[in-house]
Design brief:
The chain is mainly beta. The chain has three helices and 30 strands. A hairpin with a 2-residue loop joins β9 and β10. It is globular, with a radius of gyration of 23 Å. The protein starts with a helix and ends with a strand. 45% of the residues are buried. The N terminus is likely disordered.
Length: 380
């Protein structure tokens, strides 16, 4: 009887240990789980990298598309707010057409009629937007898995080699994107690229910002300042006309802080009608000086302010005009029209076909470099 009792007790202990509940996976501040971002795409592993600084700010980055997935910053009350749009899992990033938070390449913005000429050779690119090439085509860098190394708690290095002929572009382009979360609550993005054949390159980040922390709110009551005296007008296909126009006396003048929604629906003004709101490149006054502010966005409700700095000559400001309620994002929130603003530092659109504009050409032996800083602060 004693032997039977010992056997039964032993089996009970074994079953208890076998059925012991596994500990819950830790979530990020934004509620994301790393396991939900792990899969395989084109034979390469995707991951979620979490950056933190001494102030408690947190930035989550996926190597799928080199994407900023979440950005947790403190508001005026010290409450952490997620100020970018995105998804809860890698599956949605893969299966729902989007460029939320993505590294855009080879060429951010539009190239007219999907054609460039390099060394007197015309190259045809994918036409994915009104017969133009937008953001490198429908298989741009936002769909690629970058090699990634997190070097410390605050930095991740992403690299990707775009093969000669990928999306029609010439040259093997070796690209490196370094994202650093600084201790003064800034995301410092540094781009590098080299090629073995003359090509064009224009890299940017496509984060969708909503400083209210709740994308059920629009960004129409966000206050916007753009340090630019001019912009590049667009036609009805969102393509630049080749003109550089003065903002003075127009609805494109944001040199003094102005609510995004103050003039956005004035479709009697041709440029707002053509862009269905703001979807334009501004010609920045900073002359490539990274210490000079290019733009600020501020939301009084949270007191959060975003300042943008860049070495680039231009910045595309897009007010989420094509978000139409068909996409459900993080926390089950439906993304409706104008629930975010994008601030894409860049060369001007279609620069390869407009030789008088800042060059986007890169030759062997040269190094492409670009830098963008998104810095967060609080107005009390």
């Amino acid at each position: 009887m004693k032997k039977n009792f010992t056997l039964i007790f032993g089996l009970f202990i074994l079953m208890a240990c076998t059925n012991k509940t596994q500990p819950e996976e830790a979530e990020t501040l934004s509620g994301l789980k790393k396991s939900n971002f792990e899969t395989e795409v084109d034979g390469k592993q995707t991951q979620l990298f979490v950056l933190t600084n001494i102030t408690g700010m947190e930035v989550c980055i996926s190597n799928y598309g080199g994407r900023i997935v979440s950005v947790m910053v403190p508001d005026k009350d010290g409450t952490m707010q997620d100020v970018v749009l995105g998804f809860d899992s890698i599956d949605d990033y893969i299966n729902i057409p989007n460029n939320f938070g993505a590294t855009i390449g080879r060429y951010g913005n539009r190239i007219a009629n999907g054609k460039i000429t390099v060394n007197d050779v015309e190259y045809e690119l994918p036409q994915n937007n009104f017969n133009h090439t937008l953001h490198g085509g429908d298989k741009g860098f936002d769909t690629k898995v970058f090699d990634a190394v997190q070097t410390d708690d605050q930095t991740v290095e992403l690299s990707y080699t775009s093969k000669d002929g990928e999306a029609g572009f010439p040259g093997n382009l070796v690209t490196k994107v370094t994202m650093t979360l600084t201790d003064d609550n800034a995301i410092d993005i540094q781009y590098e690229a080299e090629t073995d054949k003359k090509t064009v390159v224009n890299l940017t980040n496509h984060s969708y910002f909503n400083l209210s922390g709740n994308p059920e709110n629009t960004i129409l009551t966000h206050e916007l300042m753009i340090n630019a005296d001019a912009f590049t007008p667009v036609d009805t296909t969102f393509m630049t006309t080749g003109e550089i126009a003065d903002v003075e006396g127009t609805d494109m003048d944001f040199r003094t802080p102005t609510l995004v929604g103050e003039r956005i629906d004035n479709y009697e003004y041709e440029q707002l009608k053509n862009g269905d709101g703001y979807d334009h490149n501004w010609v920045l006054n900073n002359d490539g000086d990274i210490s000079t502010v290019a733009a600020t966005v501020y939301y009084p409700g949270t007191g959060i302010e975003l300042s943008v700095f860049t070495t680039e000559p231009g910045m595309q400001v897009y007010t989420g005009n094509f978000l139409d309620g068909t996409v459900t994002g993080r926390d089950g929130i439906v993304y409706n029209k104008r629930t975010a603003i994008c601030l894409e530092t860049q060369k001007y659109p279609d620069t390869p076909n407009k030789p008088d504009w800042p060059s986007a050409y890169l030759s062997p032996g040269e190094k492409y470099t670009s830098r963008c800083i998104y810095k967060f602060s609080v107005r009390k």
